[in-house]
Design goal:
It contains seven helices and nine strands. It is an alpha+beta fold. Strands 1-2-3-4-5-6-7-8-9 form a nine-stranded antiparallel sheet. Helix 1 (3-11) runs parallel beside helix 6 (164-178). The chain is globular and about 45 Å long.
């Protein structure tokens, strides 16, 4: 599967709203004035080369999972519907003044090194998350290559995908369904994070009970 081609195919419908190619290689797709005057719906960042990936691994002090390393070669992170769904990458600058002209992804160092949940295991490699809703994280389990969504401070899975590509494409498709052609949330959408697959039996019982009464 060519993940880059699949992502571009899905986002191409928003090109009619405007496209900008920045000097650092960042591609902005779909102007979003309903968010902010200079906002765009989607950001694809210039892919990393071998040296940049090596640098990132040195800073992380760990090897990046092969699937995510391949993704970073296509795009150094990803922002979908502004920062609704984000994949993190190598951030080379924190200059807020220049950030509008040369936009960069969120740093993958943040969750892996500085804000790592206390119960995270060595095999958990954090790759991004959801900036709108409940702020949950996404991580790859090195042991089985599956991707999981979890709370900010607890790695207990809320959602599971078989692999990285499946997660990325299914989440883009799901979020497109929640937005109209201009990239605005449809009416009555309360949150944009996926519904948890792992609700406990106790929680399920009480939710069913609430519906009865």
């Amino acid at each position: 599967m060519n993940i880059g081609k699949e992502i571009r195919n899905r986002l191409s419908k928003y090109e009619k709203l405007g496209v900008e190619k920045q000097s650092n290689g960042t591609e902005l797709i779909g102007k979003a004035p309903h968010i902010a005057p200079l906002a765009y719906l989607h950001s694809i960042y210039k892919g990393l080369n071998t040296k940049e990936i090596d640098r990132l691994e040195q800073e992380l002090e760990t090897e990046i999972p092969a699937d995510y390393k391949k993704f970073l070669q296509f795009s150094n992170g990803l922002h979908i519907f502004n920062t609704t769904f984000c994949l993190d990458g190598l951030r080379t600058s924190y200059n807020r003044t220049k950030e509008i002209e040369n936009r960069l992804p969120f740093s993958i160092l943040t969750t892996n090194l500085y804000e790592r949940p206390k119960n995270a295991k060595p095999e958990h490699f954090f790759i991004g998350g959801y900036d709108w809703g409940n702020g949950s994280h996404l991580y790859i389990n090195r042991n089985n290559k599956k991707v999981y969504r979890c709370k900010e401070n607890d790695t207990k899975p809320l959602n599971e995908w078989n692999n990285l590509n499946e997660m990325i494409l299914s989440e883009i498709d799901r979020l497109i369904e929640l937005h109209n052609a201009s990239g605005e949330l449809k009416v009555n959408i309360e949150k944009t994070t996926p519904k948890s697959q792992f609700m406990s039996d106790k929680q399920s019982f009480w939710n069913r009970l609430k519906k009865i009464f």
